[in-house]
Amino acid sequence: MKTISCQFEYKIYESIEELSVPDRELMLMAVEELKNAYAPYSNFHVGAAVRLNDQSVYIGSNQENASYPLCMCGERVALYNAAANKPFVPIESLAITIKNLSMIIDKPVSPCGACRQVISEYEFRHRQAIRILLKSDNDEVYVISSVNDLLPLGFNASFL
Ligand code: THU
């Protein structure tokens, strides 16, 4: 028997001002996208923006439904928007932000398990890590270099 430990590093920027210009712009687009969230049931708004290698940007926000399981996360709307428009261009970065209308969230919120799996699919498809930028109500921004850090021992097409 042996024990394997996993650890990962991520960066914490004190504010969006500390980010590079492209990262700051991407996060600001995600923040702007919050207003398009359709979240009348949870009141939890998610805005996301994806930057591709060709520097084009695609946005998305969560879209809810009275039939709750049909709700779609903002990250996935943005990723599918990008993939539907530029299927063959690898994804460089994904910025995600949230606004809970019922309370202040003072630390970045990271993507749900389903979204981690979808991000992983696009990393595998394009053989390129996707940087993930996270921000909530406070100023801090977390930057994670790959979804593999959030999804250790993940499942992907290499097993199929
Ligand atoms: N949501 C996202 O958009 N992304 C996540 O990673 C977690 C949850 C959405 C789904 C639903 O509209 C609301 O947030 C509450 O779960």
Structure in words:
With 160 residues, this protein is of the alpha+beta class. The chain has one domain: Cytidine Deaminase, domain 2 (3-Layer(aba) Sandwich). It contains three helices and six strands. A six-stranded mixed β-sheet has the order 1-6-5-4-2-3, with helices on both faces. The mean pLDDT is 98. The site of tetrahydrodeoxyuridine (THU) has 13 residues, from strand 2 and helix 2.
Set down the secondary structure blueprint.
Layout (H helix, E strand, L loop, with lengths): L10 E3 L7 H13 L10 E9 L4 E5 L12 H12 L5 E10 L12 H14 L4 E5 L5 E4 L16
Parallel strand pairs: 4-5
Antiparallel strand pairs: 1-6, 2-3, 2-4, 5-6
The structure holds tetrahydrodeoxyuridine.
The site of tetrahydrodeoxyuridine has 13 residues, from strand 2 and helix 2.
Radius of gyration: 16 Å
Order of adjacent strands in the largest pleated sheet: 1-6-5-4-2-3
**Strand fraction band?**
15-25%
Structural classification:
alpha+beta
- What is the CATH superfamily? Cytidine Deaminase, domain 2
What are the salient characteristics of this protein?
160 residues, alpha+beta, Cytidine Deaminase, domain 2, 6-stranded mixed β-sheet, 6 strands, binds tetrahydrodeoxyuridine
